[in-house]
Specification:
This protein is mainly β. Helix content is 13%, strand content 42%.
Length: 76
């Protein structure tokens, strides 16, 4: 969930929650927002480039993740 009403913007450092069923590992991973694609008046797809450490934990093949659920992204 976003902290308060602070809006996440391109270039912001964030942490995102990934589940084990989809990504093989579960937990919070850090990265940087590269792009935001609006979906509706209240939701957007946040494209996050994972940090090198997060990529390594996830096996190195995953670099860019789209986050749709606002509960799964937090500004750091």
């Amino acid at each position: 969930m976003q902290d308060g009403d602070e809006k996440i913007r391109v270039g912001d450092r964030v942490r995102i929650f990934l589940n084990a069923q989809t990504f093989g590992q579960e937990g919070w991973f850090t990265g940087t927002v590269l792009r935001i694609d609006p979906y509706s008046a209240h939701r957007s797809f946040h494209w996050v480039e994972l940090d090198a450490e997060s990529q390594a934990i996830l096996g190195g093949a995953l670099k860019l993740v789209s986050v749709f659920n606002p509960k799964n992204i937090q500004k750091v």
